[in-house]
Amino acid sequence: MTLEAGHNHVGAVAVKGRDETLIKVTQVSKKFGGVHALKGIDLEVNAGEVNALLGENGAGKSTLIKIIAGAMTADGGSIEIAGREHSFKSPAESRAAGLAVVYQELSLIPSLSVAANLFLGREPRNRLGLVNRRKLLRDADEFLDSYGFPLDSKARVSDLPFAYRQMTEISKALIGDVRVLVLDEPTSALTSGEEEILFSAVERVTARGVGVIYVTHRLKEVFRISHRVTILRDGRNAATMLTKDVDMDKLVAEIVGPNHNGLKTAVASDNTLSQPGHGNGVSSSSSPIFQLKAVSNDRLRGVDLEVREGEIHGLAGSIGSGRTEILETVFGLRKIKAGTMSMDGKEVSIKSPYEAIAKGIALAPEDRHEEGLILDQTIEQNLALPRLKGLTRYGWFLRKASKAQANLAMQTLSVKAPASSVRVKNLSGGNQQKVVFAKWFPPVPKLLLLDEPTVGVDVGAREEIYGVVRDIARSGSAVLVASSDLLELMILCDRISIVADGRVVTTVNRSELIGEEELHRLIQQSHSFSKELS
Amino acid sequence: MSQTLTSTMPPENGFKRASTVLLSGDRPYLLYIAFALLLVVFSAASPVFFSVDNFLNIGRQTALVSIIAVGMTFVIVTGQIDLSVASTLALSGMTAALAMQHISNNWVLGAVVGIATGGIVGLINGTLTTHLAIPSFLVTLGMLGIARGIALIVTDTKPVLITNQEYWDVFGEGYFAGVPVPVLWTVLIFAIGAVLLHGSTFGRRVYATGGNASAARYSGINVKRTTTISFVLTGALAGLAALVLTARSHAARPDVAQGLELDVIAAVILGGSSLFGGRGLIVGTLLGSLIIGVLNNGLVLTGVSSALQVVIKGVIIIAAVAFSKK
C-alpha cells in the first residue's frame, strides 16, 4: 500500500471517531519452560488513543510487546487488528498489518544520514534507477516537518546526540501505513526538553487516528500523554482504567500490588519533595572525601567539585554536558590533562579503573549491557570481576569464596534469581541493574559513582536501589550521581551540581530548591551562562 | 537420566530439548558423539585402526596441532585470532637449531631459545593488536609472512641440522612408560591449559575480556594485558611445537608446517569455542584436536585419496561450526 492510500485509510478511521478498536488482544498467554510469563492478557487500543502499558520489570510488558510485534508467538489467545484476527509469525507480518514498534535498542545505520535511514530500502529513484538524492532529502524534510521533529535530514546519524537518534528511529517507524505505534520506553534517555518534542509528536500521530501503545516507567508521563492505562502484574491484567479516573497513588498501588507496602513513598509523588534531608543529614562541616580542582581533559574544561563524607551529590545537565565524562575521568577511564584530584585531602592520580577500584572507587555505568555486565556469564562470574585480586590465592581462583560472596551480595540487594549460577542475560532489567550494583559491595566503596542508576528500572526496584544508595551514604561513603531524571536527583541528593559544557557552573543545596521545575530552570540558565563564558 | 528427562516431556519437545542440550556450547556433547562415531566408522573400515599402537601414532601425529591449539583457545576466547602460528613454529625451530649449532650444543639452550622466540613473536602480535588497535586478523596475517620470511632468510632457505641426542629424546623420539614423548608433552600442556583457563584468576580475565571487553575494563580488568598474555602463550606453545617437530626430523627447516594454522584454528572451533570470544573449553579443544587427528589418520588408513581428504575435512569443519551456531 502506498503512502497516499495509507493517508486515506487513516483519515477514514479518524472520521469514525475514537471508539473504533484498532487492536484487540484477548487472553494472550505465553510460557517459557516452566515459567508462565503471560497468564491471559487483554489489551485494547482505540483509534487516536494513547494506551500506557505499565508494570514492574518481569510483569510481562516486554513479552507482550514481542508477541504483538511478531518477534515471538503466543501459546494461546488472539490478536485482532481492525476486526481481523491475526497470528504473526514474523515482525514483517506484524508490520504489514499496520503495527510499528520502536524498541529501546536503536536499529539505525549510524554511517548514513537521517534521510537515508528514514527511506532505507524505499529510496526514491530517478529514471536510471539510481537514488534521487534531492527528492530523498525533500521527502525527508517534508515528512519530518509534518511531525515537528527538529531533525536535520542531511545529518549523519552517528553525529547526533542519543536523543535525536531516537527521534530518527521514531520517525522511521511512522513512515508508511501505520495504524498502531508501539513505543517502548521512548523517554528513558531523553531530557525534559526533548521529552516535550516527543510528546507533541505523539499527539500529532494520534490526531491522525493512529493508536499508540506507550510503555514507560515514568509515571508522570502517563498523565501528560495517555488516555488509558493498562497495568500488568505477574503476567496478568492488574487494572485497565481511563487516565482521567486515576491519580499517582492509585497507579503506584496497582503496579506494585497488595504485597508491597511503603513503596508509594518517594518514587512517584511530588509531595515528598518537600522533605528535607536524605542521607544522614550531611552538614557543611563534614569533611570532603573527594575533590576535583580545575580538572581538564578532552571533554572537561576545568571542573571544580567536592563531595563530602556521607553526601549524595548529584550531577545535573543536558546530554553532552559532561556529566558522564566527569564520572569517567574520576574512574580512570579518561586521562586528566590538567588539574588535580584528591581523596581524603591527599592528591591522587588515577590512570585506570584498576587503580580507581584499588582506592575504593566504584562506578555503576549508564549502559549496563555494554559496560556494566557480561550478559553471557553467570551472576557469580559478573560479581567476581572487580574483586578478582581478593579472590585469588597463588594465582588460583577461589571458586567457593566467590560463590559465598555472590550469595551475600545477592541477598544484600535482593537480586531475584534462583541461584548465582544463572546467566545475567536471563534476568529482568531491574535485577540486572541490581547485579551491576552488587559488583561493588560489600565492602562498601569510599566513593560510589552512579550514572543514570535507574534507567529502564521499574518502580519497585527503583525504590530498592534508592534505599541501597542512601544506606551507603549513611555508612559514611560519598556518592556522586549523574542523572537526566531531575526528580531522581531531587529525591536522592543532598547537593546538586549543574554541569554545562564540560564544567560545573553552580552547586546548590537540595533544601534550597523548591521543585523539579526550579532545577530544570537552573540547567537552562547554566546553558546560556556557559555560552557567554566561551 | 536421559530416560526420565524424555518421559516427562511431550514427544514433540523431546527432540528439540535433546538437540538444544547437545548443541549448547557449555558441554560439547555433540562433539563426544561425533568423536565416538568417527571411531566406530574407521574401526569398521580398517582392521588396524582400533589398536593402542595406532592411537599412540595418532597422538604423535596430532601433537603439533594439539599443543598450539591450547594456546589458540586462550586467544580465541579473548575474541582474537592468531594466523601466524605455523610461521612462528618454523622460525622458532630455526633459532633453536642455530643456537645449538653456533652457541653451545646444549638441548636446554635450544629449548629456551625456541620457546622464547615464539613468545616474542606472540608479544609483538599482542602488543600491536592491543596498543595500536589493529585487528588481530591483520596483525597476525602480516606476521605470518614476516616470521616465515625471516626463517627463510637466516640460512638462505637451507635446513639446519640438529645433532643433539638428548634433544631428540626429550622432545621427539623418546618414550616414557611406553608412551612417545610428543604425546606426553601434549597431555602436560592440556593439563596446564585446563588449570590456567578454568582454575586460575587469569582464566576469569580471559573469559571476561572476550565476553565483553568494555565491561571487563569497567570492572578494573587490564584487557590489553590479558589479551597480550594470551598471544604470548600461543607463540611460546608454537615454539614448543617447533621443538617436537625438529627433534623428530633431526633438523630445522624454514618451510615446514605450512597451513598448520588452519588445522589449529579448526580444532579450537570444532571444540566449541566461539570466534566472537567469551566461550570455549580446553576439553573441547582436546576433542577437536583428536577429531582432526583421527580424521587425518583414518582417511589415510581407509585409502581415501589425499585430495578427497582435504575436501572431507573442509566439509566437516563447516558442518561443525554451522551446528554449533544454533
UniProtKB/TrEMBL annotation, chain A:
GO terms for molecular function: ATP binding; ATP hydrolysis activity. InterPro entries: AAA+_ATPase, ABC_carbohydrate_import_ATPase, ABC_transporter-like_ATP-bd, ABC_transporter-like_CS, P-loop_NTPase. Residues 23-259, 284-526 form the ABC transporter domain. Keywords: ATP-binding, Cell membrane, Membrane, Nucleotide-binding, Repeat, Translocase, Transport. It is a peripheral membrane protein. PANTHER family: CARBOHYDRATE TRANSPORT ATP-BINDING PROTEIN MG119-RELATED, GALACTOFURANOSE TRANSPORTER ATP-BINDING PROTEIN YTFR. This is Sugar ABC transporter ATP-binding protein. It comes from Arthrobacter globiformis. The lineage of its organism: Bacteria, Bacillati, Actinomycetota, Actinomycetes, Micrococcales.
